[in-house]
Design brief:
- The chain has about 240 residues and is of the alpha/beta class.
- The protein has two domains: about 160 residues, Rossmann fold, CATH 3.40.50; about 70 residues, no CATH class.
- It has eleven helices and ten strands.
- The strands form two sheets. Strands 6-7-8-3-9-10 form a six-stranded mixed β-sheet, with helices on both faces.
- Strand 4 and strand 5 form a beta hairpin.
- Helix 3 runs parallel beside helix 7.
- It is globular.
Length: about 240
Amino acid sequence: MLTLNEIEVYYGNIQALWKVSLRVARGEIITIVGSNGAGKSTILRTISGLIKPKRGRIEFDGIRIEQLDPDEIVRLGISMVPEGRELFPRMTVLENLQLGAAYVEEAYAQTAQSLDWIFNLFPILKERSAQLAGTLSGGEQQMLAIGRALMSRPKILLLDEPSLGLAPLVVSEMFRTIHQINQEGLTILLVEQNVRLSLGISQRAYVLENGRFVMEGPGKELIENRHVKEAYLGL
């Protein structure tokens, strides 16, 4: 479904990614784990078209996308929930959600059905639909960010640190929802520092260090890997 082949990315003269290759099959949850500054968010931003790679190729459903603009990539079926959520704080919950479908013709035609779906996933958003996004709690804002991304009816959802800054109880609920969305058929590429929870729901995972993948394997096997335990689980 999605493949990256030897992607290299630079910020000015500083190289951020070194020959990064990965594959995501339809229906999978794939997790990328790594420390701060390893390049995890750079991978998602490159897939989304926000950063153009200097070398390598990205294919999605057989179409090369590494030089496409972000709006073209969204229309092909890739939607990202960025780190920090990037909501429109002075717009209501409902307006933020509607904006998620506004620029994808097929998704716009399904706005009413999509809203029902989102409100079923996150009932609190229905209660808060007339409330300004900037007044929501951190957990509610993350729900809204995910809901807005889902409104475009993506084929694959990119999640960048969805648990960042959230209380443990909210984090657990967030991961249950991510797993539920996947069970409903949506492919997910997840970047996450909560290694235990993210690997626990992933079919496969990659470990990124200093812009390079150093390990790949089934999520539940990597949890038991000695290096992963020492580096990311504090064991």
